[in-house]
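Researcher: Next sequence.
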Amino acid sequence: MDLTSVLGFGVAGNFAGHLEQAGEAADFKSIRTAEVTAPKAVFPFYLPGMNDSFLSVYPLSSDTICFPEGADNLQIEPEVGVIFNINYAGDRVLSLSAECFGAYNDCSIRRPGARKISEKKNWGACSKGFSSVTVPIDRFSAGGVLDSYRIASFLIRDGQCHPYGVDSAVVDYSYMYEKLTGWIVDKMNNQKDEGPVEDINSYIIRLGRPARCLISIGATRYTEFGSTNYLKKGDLSVVAVYSTADYSPEKIVDLVSARKFGEITCPLLVQKVV
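Model: Next structure:
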């Protein structure tokens, strides 16, 4: 799937506890939300065609993470990535129609005091990950295909496999389905450039109202190992978005630990850190 012309956005704070673990909760102290459990913001990670911005560099890879120069606190961020068609009414986003989903790594540099969220997200080619295998979405609502899926992530280092994120049900996102897309549409139209967040609508208009976007809908909480161990060159980062109809959590652990990646047919993202 060629995603080089597809807008890239992420949702910050859609899993309870993740921002606190990542040391980023203070970044959003000035952001008001309608509910305590609401996500905090939508941020851009890829704006194709915006050539005066670092966000114009295509960051996605299905097999590699290029370690950024001068960084020492890089973390896996395991998520579901959803490709949406964008429906417009003039310059306003009217609605989002889900097309498919895959395993996503919103790999991030922990930069305390960064001016914008996006400054932690795209440092060049191979700074993000999206699985080459995706699953069509029959409907982005309760009762649809995503109801049975879970997110698991691992770091393989020196031959040892370590659970990195807490194995979590997709339906346990704070905002999901119609509530999530309604919230995203509102942010696409009305989010202002203030604090760590950016004016998304101005980007969409400037880029000619693109037809599609890839949205990472939020990172899970970390295990104790994940919260205290950063990536190093030579590591393998693994994110699996699997259905409980096909795999148990124990089976996913066994297959990943044995590196039997070819036996995993669900969206799987295996990236070597180089």
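Model: The two ends are 24 Å apart (CA to CA). The domain at 7-273 is CATH 3.90.850.10 (Fumarylacetoacetate hydrolase; domain 2).
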